[in-house]
Amino acid sequence: SGRARPDSASGPAAGEGAAGPAGPAGAGPSEEDLAAAGLRLEVDGAVATLTLDRPERRNALTFATWRTMAAVGASLPPSVRVVVVRGEGPSFSAGIDLSQFTGEGGEGFPDGSDAAETEAFIAGLQDGYTWLRRPDLVTVAAVHGHAIGGGFQLALSCDIRIVADDVKFCMKEPALGLVPDLTGTKPLVEIVGVPRALELCLTARTVLADEAARLGLAERVVPREDLDGAVQELVQALLAVNAEAAVATKRLLWQAPENTLEQQAAAERREQVARLRALSALRPTP
Ligand code: CAA
């Protein structure tokens, strides 16, 4: 049987896998919570812009950043259709704030001695990214400068990447003795395939804009000064499409790689039945 749930075409909040359901949008993190997590959030009708806002630390990511991002995802108003993730200052993100490993100024990274506890800890951080795949949102990473480790994985967690010509992607974790564990390995492999993903991760080398475009890590490369404009252009184009069709199509496309052709064809039929019903309900009866 196909992976689409029988009711999968009926509502926008059908979460996929670990992303979970959208949940009721409620009071999100306060301005203070956001600032303490190095984030800024602007919601303008159908568009939410989440800015990594610690440029003096190259938008290094803390435990608070990931947890607050999860809270942002869970509390976005239902009006939001597109989320833009961007970085303030010279770089998108320098990855995990290295102070998190030393426990400087608070909580430190668990040492793994309690496997279940450590996994639960990491799961809490992963929640910061997984909602970006929710079918009721289209998520766009606007990436410039360095996108290292957890920063690269954040860009990979979005549906679409628009990058500046100064972009520098690097999966640095293996060079630090770690694995990329913020849900980035799946999208990386989906985009570039296992051999290239291996080569990139196990050398921790830097991928520049031209290669990023060639590998499919960037849907578009633009001069640095044009990045915001290019993202706005894309956002307007995304909003011009029927909202419910967009949700159903995203749901369909993200399940395609794991479905057989038969399963996918069945999923297309189910989604289309729901679309046709919705469209005919709008038509005036003769
Ligand atoms: N954590 C904490 N502070 C960081 C940081 C990070 N990841 N990256 C940069 N900073 C700080 C610098 O220490 C510096 O602070 P001071 O002004 O107090 O000296 C400030 O930000 C500006 O940094 P640079 O002067 O180095 O800026 P640059 O533009 O010349 O270089 C950079 C930028 C290439 C990102 C460089 O800072 C760098 O290599 N940073 C470390 C990157 C890194 O190793 N990240 C971890 C990746 S692994 C991961 O993310 C996931 C995981 O789970 C393991």
UniProtKB/TrEMBL annotation:
Chain positions covered by the region annotation Disordered: 1-31
Composition skew (Gly residues), residue ranges: 17-26
Pathway note: Lipid metabolism; fatty acid beta-oxidation
InterPro entries (UniProt xref): ClpP/crotonase-like_dom_sf (IPR029045), Ech1-like (IPR045002), Enoyl-CoA_hyd/isom_CS (IPR018376), Enoyl-CoA_hydra/iso (IPR001753), Enoyl-CoA_hydra_C (IPR014748)
Domain of life: Bacteria
Family annotation (CDD domains): crotonase-like
Isomerase keyword on record: yes
Keywords: Fatty acid metabolism, Isomerase, Lipid metabolism
Family: Belongs to the enoyl-CoA hydratase/isomerase family.
Protein name according to UniProt: Enoyl-CoA hydratase/isomerase family protein
Source organism per UniProt: Actinomadura yumaensis
